[in-house]
């Protein structure tokens, strides 16, 4: 656990994942730099920082304190475009890793389930497994794999790629989840899923206690039954 409140930069602050990470971080008393093109509200813990991740210089100014902002302890990358733009995803991730390497700060990339290994089929990625990814979603899954490879090829060592399970959507915060590394997990009900709220819990837990695994995943876990 950190000895002082963290300052966390969230790139993709207005998104499904980013907005929940901000709520979770705020509930733990942490400060957030909320980076996105559209500004988010300022509630004291949250500083909105309008930035277009296509602009490396703007990202640099947002993260290095040159815009009068605090330098964050960690950056969460949670961007997504519609339609998928693999080149943008990879370049924005590389830019954040470049800056983080200079600042010696931690990076958590919210990636895709496609970058995980398919359970029961060694060597097969979920992105290439039609049981999980239909043909029309393969470009999205492949972009997530490219984003992971960009991290693996980067010289900055202090980063983690957090893959959601197959299904990630708005839901309830239970505070429970099961953690794994680079293979897709399924919950007790047989589905590979987690609520975005519990996913955000896992994101902030990873930021509080970074481990040595570069690729991790989480899945919904039922609350332990109290006897
Ligand atoms: N099962 C799965 O594998 C699964 C499921 C869902 C999500 N995900 C992953 O989770 C991550 C987050 O997804 P999400 O669902 O939270 O996405 P989302 O709701 O679509 O939000 C996307 C975020 O990206 C930001 N963004 C897009 N282009 C930007 C730019 N040029 N500059 C700055 N910010 C930009 C948007 O902000 P503005 O538009 O306000 O700038 C928004 O905050 C993605 O990597 C996605 O692939 C994985």
Percentage beta strand = 15-25%
CATH level-two architecture: 3-Layer(aba) Sandwich
What proportion of the residues is helical, as a percent range? 25-40%
Instruction: Say which molecules are bound, naming each kind only once.
Output: NADP nicotinamide-adenine-dinucleotide phosphate
Number of helices: 5
Straight-line N-to-C gap: 30 Å
Rg of Cα set:
17 Å
- Rough shape? globular
State mean pLDDT (0 to 100 scale).
95
* Topology, number of strands: 10
Strand neighbour order, sheet with most strands = 3-2-1-4-5-6-10-8
Properties at a glance:
binds NADP nicotinamide-adenine-dinucleotide phosphate, two-stranded parallel ribbon, eight-stranded mixed beta sheet, 227 residues, globular, alpha/beta, single chain, Rossmann fold, 29% helix
What does it look like?
This protein is of the alpha/beta class and about 230 residues long. The chain contains 5 helices and 10 strands; from the N terminus they run βαββαβαβαββββαβ. The strands form 2 sheets. An 8-stranded mixed beta sheet has the order 3-2-1-4-5-6-10-8, sandwiched between helices. Strands 7-9 form a two-stranded parallel sheet. α3 links the parallel β4 and β5. The longest helix has 18 residues. The two termini are about 30 Å apart. The model has no long low-confidence stretch (mean pLDDT about 95). NADP nicotinamide-adenine-dinucleotide phosphate binds next to α1.
